[in-house]
Amino acid sequence: MIPTVRPRRLRSTPAMRRLAAETRLHPAELILPAFVREGIDEPRAISAMPGVLQHTLDSLRRAAAEAAEAGVGGIMLFGVPAVRDARGSAADDPRGILNVATRAVAEEVGDALVVQTDLCLDEFTDHGHCGVLDARGEVDNDTTLDRYRAMALAQAEAGSAVLGLSGMMDGQVAAVRDALDAAGHQATAILGYSAKYASAFYGPFREAVDSQLGADPSSTGDRRSYQQDPANRREGLREAELDIAEGADIVMVKPAMSYLDVLSDVAAVSPVPVWAYQVSGEAAMIEAAAANGWIDRRRTVEESVLGIKRAGADAILSYFAVELAGWVR
Ligand code: PBG
After folding, report:
1. Is residue 253 a contact partner of residue 311, using CB atoms and an 8 Å limit?
2. Which residues are designated catalytic?
3. Dist. CA 106 → ligand 1 center (Å)
4. What is the model's pTM?
C-alpha cells in the first residue's frame, strides 16, 4: 500500500511549526519611516495614519531612541518644511528641517540605528512634484538631477548613511553617486527606490508630509509621468537592473503588498539587497479594518510583513516596525 503523504505532520504542534518555518522576521531587518515637521511645539497626529506622528525634533529623537531600543535596524527620515518654493530650496539647505533632524538623530542614536533619509523634492516644492518643472509645467528630468546632487551632499554632510532616492528620475542613481564620490562621500550608500509605482496607496503619506500636489493648477496632480504604471511587471525588473548598473547599493520595490510579483522577480536576480516598503495606505487598510473589529490587528500585521519577506525582501520599511520588533524578538 502506498503510504499517504502527510504534510500535516510538520504542522502538528507549536514547537514543530516553529522549527519548520521557512521564513522568520527579525527586528534588525525592519526600518521605521518617520516624519519631522518644522515649526511645531508638540507632535501632531496624522488622521489617516493612526499611531504615526509628525514629530518635533525632540519627539523624533525619542522615537529614534525607542526604535534603537527595540532592535530595529534603521530609520528613514522625511522632512516637512515650513516654507516651500518651486525648486525645493529647503531640501539642500543645511538648516532645512530634514538636514537638521538627520544631525539630531545621528547624534542621538550613534551606531545603534542606520540613519537614512528620503532624497526627493516632493516634500519641499510648492507644487508638490518630485522634481523641478519646465516652462510647460512638466517635471524636467535633468534639471532635477542637479537638485538631487545638491540634496545628496547636504544629507551626507548631515550624517545620513543611506540616501533613499525616491524621485524616479532617469539616471538619478548615477548622478548622486557621482556627486557623492566627487565630494569625498564614498561611504554613503544609495538605496534606489527602483521599482516605484504611481500608487493610490500613498494617499495617507500625502497628509503626513502636507503635500502640495494638485494644489497648483498649472501642473498635474499626479506622478504618472515619472512613477511606474501599476500594469507593468517586466518594467520593474528593468528599473532595478538599471539602478544596479548605475551603482545602487540596495534596490527597493514599492508599494509592497500589491507588488509581490515584482519583488519576487527582482529578488530572484539582484546581486544587491532588495528592500520593500509597506506604504502608508497599506498600513491604513490594516488599521481601519482592525479598528472596525473586522480583522485581528496583530496577526494581520505579522502576516502582511511575513508575506513581504517570503516574496524576497531582505529588509522592510514599515510603520509597524517598532511594534513588530517587540513581537518577533
Ligand atoms: C516621495 C515618497 C513618497 C512616499 C515615500 N517617498 C510619496 C510619493 O511618491 O508620492 C510614500 C510612502 C508612503 O506612502 O508610506 N518622497
Report:
1. no
2. 196, 254
3. 22
4. 0.97
